[in-house]
Amino acid sequence: MQVRPRLRTFLMSGALFLGLGAGAAAATCPEAQNVEVLPTDAALCKALDPVVRDPSALPRGAYELKLQEYFTNFCHRDKASGWVRDKYVRDTGPETARLINGEWMGTYHGTHAPVVIWYSPDMFAWIKENRTPADEERATDKGPVPDGAMIVKEMYSSPASVCSKIPPEKLIPKIHGAAIMVRDSKASHDGWFWGWFGWTGWAPDYPANQSSNLMVNMGFAQYCMNCHASARDNMTFSSQKNIEGEPGYPLVFLNQDEDPTPETASQHPEVRLPTDAVRRLGQPLFSYNPAFTEAFRWNGPGSAPDYVSVPKMPSETYDETFVRAGGPTIHDQYLTSSQCIGCHDAGSTGLQFDMTEPVLPDYGDGSAAAAGKMWNHSPYGSWRTSPMGLAGRDPIFFAQLASETQSFHKKDAKLVENTCLGCHGILGQRQYGIDVSSGAIEPIATMPKKQDPAGCGAFTREVVDVTPWPSEKAKNAHIEYADYGALARDGISCTSCHRMVLGETISNEVKGRPENKCILERQAFLNPKAEGFAKTFTGSFLVGGPDTIFGPFENPKPAPMVDALANKPAHNTTLAMSETCGTCHTVHLPVLHEGKTVGHIYEQLTYPEWAFSAYRTGTSPDGPLPEGAGSIARSCQDCHMPSKDAEGKPVKSRIASIQEYSNFPQAEFNRGPDEIDLPVREGFAQHTLVGLNVFLTKMAQQFPDVFGIRTQDPMMGRNGMDPLIFTEQKMLDQAARATADLAVTKLAVDPDRAVLEAEVSITNHVGHKFPSGVGFRRAFVTFDVIDRLGNVIWSSGATDGAGRIVGPSGAPLPGEVWWDETCTARIEPEKRHHQPHHQTITRQDQVQIYQELVSTPKPGSKNPQCGHDVAPEGHLTTSFLSICAEVKDNRLLPTGYLPLDKRKAISAALGAGADMAEDAGALGVGDDPDYREGGGDRLTYAVPLADLPSDPVSVRARLSYQATPPFYLQDRFCTAKGADRDRLYFLAGNLNLAGTQAEGWKFTIGDTGPLQIAPGN
Fold it and tell me: How many CB atoms lie within 10 A of CB 656?
């Protein structure tokens, strides 16, 4: 895919938002009725009126049902009780026309579809007092809209001239519905309950539809604020001059309406009411892959999970929290991304499409699916489906967690859950700790005092599944923890990073804040001997207050965010530094053994690997580091959050999508351009945040109902390529352009030695080890010898359909599976079967696998010694909290890797011990010179000609990557049980990878293709 050098602003002819329609005047108003449509049951309206005016008094689902009664009876048109309306259907923006093929075609550019707004009596009284034409000319402080006031924005076909001559009482907004606002200042900071109601096709948000996991139609602190926060006050643009019987006239806009023009349905109901039951991106298998079931026999109770019985994660529909009234306080420290989507997703206003890029005609297979669509480069749009965005729903992680608590560390299950969810469910775990330690809630579970001296409680797996539905305590025992479940499922979300503070000076300033009490406890538990930056390892960074959001740009426009969230955006230089990533991507964990902590060890060292390489920048939040910058200095963000295009030019774009003053149709009582007009920024960073885990992305694409997620971006709608496709494309780009090169540099037949000899060279292009991250990931080389008929006659690194590396007989090599078929016994665990590091390969059962392998403490040992220099005595393990000794680490080093003494100096400057420098080295590579300064590996294949059944004609080398190798998957299926194990078994067994770069459960990173052996060689 060719990426254009600049994100552009588009005024899309097909853009639709909250009823915004494309198309000029139809011959007749499609919403017109023969008679007036007014309330028919005055008693019902009177009974419902106090109920609908107090949305926080009822659970969401119950309240929405009351609203349904209210609006289907048209109670908001009760003029006798004081409701008033606009003078007529009015435009909210211009209509332009183009002559196409001899016909005039119109496009509407309003902020909404044309509207008639109805105002409750108290809302009308406030407008009369505060929104006269004279008020618009002077900026004066206005009193708050009274609680219970309502605004009902009925939306009609565009342009307004279609329906404006018809009395609004003879119209029903059956196509575009109505946007509603109900004032309730005791519930949320912004003070409004927002929503959309449709007279056809509408359904309450709760219970969630597990097939579509739609974004909610209604609620407090909704995305509507991306426009309404631009209002001068009270988040409303209401004006007296629009209202029937009041002086003045509504705003008018250019109107080139022509007849005929087809009407287009609105985006709002299309996004929220898809026609298909489950909108999958790719067709999964209809039944289990035979290669999978042959490799991993189902050993659970009953039959293996199927499409009906597979346990599903709670719906994304439930994942929303917001700043409460009177906030922000420490109880609003962490918020779900639902509070950010309105402004920091592309296309959310329906008019401007900053942060996007058109999909070029040559994308993919040229199918019509991509025609007229855009890539969404916005912070929300690119983050949501990244591995970080999916972290709180990652089925691989939750199966791992089940293994840890059910098999590896039963005695410390709560401690393990609290520790691990402190990263994968960081928002929920942290907010829970704040609220428990401050006495706001009772803990759902506790830990011994020595493990929890600050009284933060144990954030457990069961909390992640808590939702606000059902709303009755009798049916939902832990409903009071629903917010923490929503926060945890939101993954490594916006406020995870944008509250972060780094650097000793500022960290010392915020240490005493109550929101950092439990983080200090975490630091003491996980990093007891660390100083400075090293204290923040394993996601143990401190945060600023709940009223500030940090960003990388200077001079942000604060007004909209302050009004919407009571959060002020502030410039923070450390967000662009690698240490922002390093705090979580340096994982330091206790070694648990028979209920005791017997040491600490590094499970993951991605950040130090970078800091020791030629990619290092040589700086930190606390100043320069020893050795300075490397020869090819790049930050983590330069690769994983690119702000430059493929040609190296800075990307330029606005960084938010809001209603501006100068770039939108005029509105009354707007803020001025100095407050809401956003500059085009250089260095706009995409939040792609991808590695190479296409397996996780493919699972999410094919099983969104099991993940509990939606596949279509709710702001971009049909205008955008689906975010999961975007994420996969970025992974494919990463693999093709920025991971590793593979080449056969020497190829000849040596007649004297009777061998076919080839040298395979691999160059590592990433700024850390490859693979890096969690230790179970691996890469391996497949080297094939091919005869004249194209048959593979010799192969090192061949695999079966489940991705297991096999020998010449087709059987998995030792170490490819750890358990017998019934999961009742490990296969010779004391031998720690694995492939050693090779410099020369002569047999088909020898394979170069780049991986890290670790072992447990010696079984039965009362006082095991663990650490980098300790010889392994236990069993190979996938348990993060059982790592006692390294067995092997021949992962490819990055270019310019520093020697041990220099690594120790940098470690000390970061506040870590020498063990970090030691653990970041290679292990088990012998005297291989390629592991002195890094940058790749050279490997010789000396294939005996006597082993070949026919004459060799060509060779082929491939480099493959497995994010979840077969031995790892089998360990999950044999050591975990219950819903999280069952879910992963179903997803892995029914995942369809045919025809993809990950076919056969291995992701191709490099492929030389067949290379001819020169004649005479």
Answer: 27
Check: CB of residue 398 under 8 Å from CB of residue 983.
yes
- Calculate the CA 649 to chain-centre distance: 26
Q: What is the DSSP string of 532-592?
A: GGGGGTTT--EE--TTEEEESSSS---HHHHHHHS-EEEE-GGGGSTHHHHTTSEEEEEEE
Beta bridge partners of 59: none
- Distance, in Å, from the CA atom of 314 to the CA atom of 462, rounded to the nearest integer, reads 12
Q: Determine if the peptide bond prior to 751 is cis (ω within 30°).
A: no
Q: How far apart are CA 35 and CA 28, in angstroms?
A: 16
Q: Do residues 131 and 238 make contact, with C-beta atoms less than 8 angstroms apart?
A: yes
Tokens linked to 389: 């965005």
* Three-state DSSP state, 923: strand
Q: How many CB atoms neighbour CB 621 within 10 A? A: 20
**How many residues are recorded in the chain?**
1017
pLDDT tens-digit map of 825-852 = 999 999 999 999 999 999 999 999 999 9
Q: Assess contact for 19 and 177: CB atoms under 8 A.
A: yes
Please, are residues 662 and 965 in contact by the beta-carbon 8 Å criterion? Answer: no
Q: Could you please report the per-residue DSSP string of 26-87?
A: -SS-TTB-SS----S-HHHHHHHHHHHT-GGGS-HHHHHHHHHHHHHTTGGG-GGGT-EEBS
Tell me, letter by letter, the H, E, C secondary structure of 341-361. Answer: HHHHCCCCCCCECCCEEECCC
CA diameter of the chain: 106
Tell me if 155 sits within 8 A of 112, measured CB to CB. Answer: yes
**Would you say 599 and 588 are in contact if contact means Cβ atoms under 8 Å apart?**
no
Mean pLDDT of 565-574: 95
CB 983 within 8 A of CB 973: no
Q: Give the strand pairing for 374-376 and 356-358.
A: antiparallel
**Strand (E) or helix (H) holding 581:** helix 579-582
In sequence order, the 6+-apart residues with CB closer than 8 A to the CB of 853 are 775, 832, 834, 876, 886, 887, 888, 889
Instruction: Provide the pairing of β-strand 740-750 with 623-624.
Output: unpaired
Q: Using CA atoms, how far apart are residues 456 and 445, in angstroms rounded to an integer?
A: 10
The CB density around residue 1004, as the number of other CB atoms within 10 Å, is 18
Backbone angles phi, psi at 483, to 5 degrees: -60, -35
For the packed helices 482-489 and 426-437, what is the interaxial angle rounded to 10 degrees? 150
Q: For residue range 295-317, list pLDDT tens digits in order.
A: 999 999 999 999 999 999 999 99
Angle at 352 between CA 349 and CA 353, to 5 degrees: 105
- The answer to whether residue 809 scores a pLDDT higher than 70 is yes
- Find, among 549, 540, 542, the residue nearest to 583 by Cα: 540
Cβ neighbour number for residue 40 with a 10 Å cutoff: 10
Q: Residues with Cβ < 8 Å from 270, sequence gap 6 or more?
A: 16, 717, 718
Q: pLDDT exceeding 90 applies to what percent of the chain?
A: 88
DSSP SS3 for 286: coil
Distances from the Cα of 685 to the Cα of 332, 349, 629, 654, 681, angstroms: 27, 21, 22, 11, 10
pLDDT reported for residue 139: 64
- pTM of the shown model: 0.95
DSSP, collapsed to helix, strand or coil, labels residue 153 as strand
Take residue 407 and report the two structure tokens written for it: 């098999």
Q: Could you report how far apart the first and last alpha carbons of the chain are, in Å? A: 39
What are the pLDDT digits (tens) for 445-471? 999 999 999 999 999 999 999 999 999
Question: Which residues does residue 569 pair with via DSSP β-bridges, in sequence order?
Answer: 549
Closest alpha carbon to 405 in 980, 983, 985, 987: 980
Spatial separation of the C-alpha atoms in residues 303 and 725, rounded to whole Å: 33
Q: What is the pLDDT confidence band of residue 28, given thresholds at 50, 70 and 90?
A: confident
Question: Measured between alpha carbons, how far is 875 from 857 in angstroms, rounded to an integer?
Answer: 8
